[in-house]
Amino acid sequence: MADLLVTLVPLAIASAVLPVQLAVTTLLLRAPAGRAAAVAWVAGMTAVRLLQGLLFGVVFGVAGGEAAAQGDPGPTAAAVQVILAILFYVVAAKSFLKVPDEDAPPPRWMTAIDGVRPGRAFLLGAGVVLISAKLWVFTLGAMGAIEEAALGAAGAVGAFLAFVVLAESIHLAILAVAFAAPSRADVLLARSSDLLARYSRPILIALGLVFGTWFLLKGLSGLGVI
Q1: Most distant CA pair in the chain: distance in Å?
Q2: Mean pLDDT confidence for 136-147
Q3: 3-state class of 72 per DSSP?
């Protein structure tokens, strides 16, 4: 269980701190449609993640059952960890070199935020998760780790739901502030935007290096290289 946590938590944190998605949540809350659009945006991201869990959970479950029947967990989990390590290093390098995020929503989406209604915001949230290669890898890595932990059906579902909540924890916290303290929300959102703009780059660099090294060592160990 501890081994599962040290895999899931980094993946959830990496999913949660992506600057562009957080910026969209903040911008939507300050747009005319306000809280309804922001909730729909987060709901769209959640819906796709749950669908990924449903579809690929079945695939991982079948693969895990076959591996267990052969008495060999196979190199799949370790290979995924190496891929995750490479991805984290790429994120750190791109952040250091100030390379634009290829998974960011198209510029026309960002410029149209003020006019986005809840229905379109839902589709935007779903689309961002669908087109983001990083989020796909993070989610598939989480499901692979959950399957490797052999928690049983109920435990696996609970672990994946916990991953989804952690992956969206900052978005949920921003929404909670908007609902709990609407009179102060504008000031808090403005401060959050400033902090995000100021510190997102060093945070991504640090996370990429730390988590990349962790997953690389873990994956190479699982493959028997070290």
Answers
A1: 60
A2: 84
A3: coil
